[in-house]
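Morning - S-adenosylmethionine inputs below, output right after.
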Amino acid sequence: MALFDNFGRLHDNLRISVTDRCNIRCFYCMPEEGGQYAPKPEILSFEEMAHFVRIAAGLGVRKLRITGGEPLARKDLHKLIALLHEIEGIEDIALTTNAVLLGAQAEALYNAGLRRLNIHLDTLDRERFHQITRRDELPRVLESIDKAQARGFGPIKINAVAVKGVTDPDIIPMARFARERDMEVRFIEYMPLDHQGLWDSKQVLTMDQMLAMLRDEFGQLDAVPDQDPRAPATEFKYRDTGQRVGFIASVTKPFCLNCNRIRLTADGRLRYCLFAVEEMDIRPQLRGPNPETAVAAAIKENLRRKWIGHQIGAEQFVPPPRPMYAIGG
Ligand code: SAM
């Protein structure tokens, strides 16, 4: 079994948001106060998520990414990881986290079988971290990274959102931090996913601009020929160390043509794109009498509707009706 959309793209990658809540408040994602969250009973249980994954795996899904909101804010996340590990066909599970709670949960997550982490960190400057996230949590994040590296998680990648006028001074320190620790940092272009529609294309620090900054500081970088053309990051290698640095250039170099992803939100909505304006509630099927057939049909139907790509920057672009924290990053 394999899932193809109307454009011949194979879909074997599922992102599951386990909660829409978060313990920090990044200005480009969440309001400082008064976020809107799904009521608890609307949120899928771990058993329901695992059931969905079993059906999706039967259709050819092989890779999972657990995200949120902040996934570690969901109680006992390691129990979900353990459940997902048991599912036949699933070959890879990764977690995207802001790492505030990672230190405390690292052991349980490791024992549940998790190895791959993407840690979100935009700056090493405590004040700017506070300004961006509205929380003074940089020390805990750095401790968590130490702990995760010491415990043997890997590969660990760092996701750094780049916003012009805010994180320009962080590009080189973040790159140096990753080089010293032998981790890959991936700089993410600022996308129109904030809650208030504050995004402006002038605030996008582009991949080309960041690449020029890195070349000035570290010398030559060479493009890595796409090993996995469906991975969202465009990667480069530093000529001096051979280490890698990546860019998620969703705005200036969209990678939609290679898209292999479907998404499940914490409240059971299926989405074929981060920027989709429509979504499909699969809870009735999942909670109904014949979930195997009904959920499989819903996944195929959702994929049948998938568009060729989002159109950030184009006049006709419409931002998604839900912010990133509610969709799942
Ligand atoms: N809480 C987890 C985390 O911080 O990684 C997972 C969810 S978070 C929404 C996933 C990623 O989306 C993070 O790296 C975050 O910085 C990024 N993100 C959120 N809003 C964004 C925006 N407007 N543009 C680009 N990236 C954004």
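Note: The radius of gyration is 19 Å.

O.
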